[in-house]
């Protein structure tokens, strides 16, 4: 597991069950300042993901949010990654699939989640590190 993925799996992941009212999912997102909640069953297996985009897409037709559950809004086809994935592979998957969040799964169990912001931050860190190494080399 790369240090980047290790850090992401250590920070945890906000989850909810399929029967969680969507109003509670929205509150979890707001309280934790996250853009997606992974939906898991009792065995911690991923069943879906509810993102800001899912909520925005559906909000215009919902009269009473408390009547809806996470299962009613979640994206059921969840793309995920293993802890061994590289930041460039993450960028490739997210770009091609047009998604901003990927659960990190090992042996069918959720370990954490990676966002497009995490990937951009990691790539910037790599470029800054390379630039610093080049400056050190040139100045030596």
Can you describe what's shown?
There is one protein chain. By secondary structure, this protein is of the alpha+beta class. It has one domain (3-139): CBS-domain. It has helices spanning 3-10, 22-32, 52-59, 70-73, 87-97, 116-139, and strands spanning 15-16, 36-40, 46-51, 101-106, 109-115. The strands form 2 sheets. The chain has a 3-stranded mixed beta sheet with strand order 1-2-3. A two-stranded antiparallel sheet has the order 4-5. The mean pLDDT is 88.
Strand order of the largest sheet: 1-2-3
Main sheet characteristics:
3 strands, mixed
Helix percent band: 40-55%
Total domain count: 1
Per CATH, the class reads: Alpha Beta
Total DSSP E strands = 5
Query: Residue ranges: pLDDT <50 for 5 or more in a row?
Result: none
CATH homologous superfamily descriptor: CBS-domain
Structural class: alpha+beta
User: Could you tell me how far the N terminus lies from the C terminus, measured between alpha carbons in angstroms?
Assistant: 33 Å
């Amino acid at each position: 597991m790369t240090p980047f993925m290790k850090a992401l799996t250590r920070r945890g992941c906000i989850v909810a069950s399929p029967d969680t009212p969507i109003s509670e999912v929205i509150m979890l997102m707001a309280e934790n300042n996250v853009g997606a909640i992974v939906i898991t069953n009792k065995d911690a297996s991923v069943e879906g993901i509810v993102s800001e985009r899912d909520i925005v897409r559906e909000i215009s037709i919902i009269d009473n949010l408390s009547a809806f559950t996470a299962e009613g809004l979640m994206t059921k086809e969840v793309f995920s990654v293993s802890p061994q994935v590289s930041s460039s592979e993450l960028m490739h998957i997210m770009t091609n699939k047009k998604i901003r969040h990927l659960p990190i799964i090992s042996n069918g169990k959720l370990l954490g989640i990676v966002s497009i912001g995490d990937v951009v931050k990691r790539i910037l860190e790599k470029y800054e590190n390379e630039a610093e190494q080049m400056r050190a080399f040139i100045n030596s």
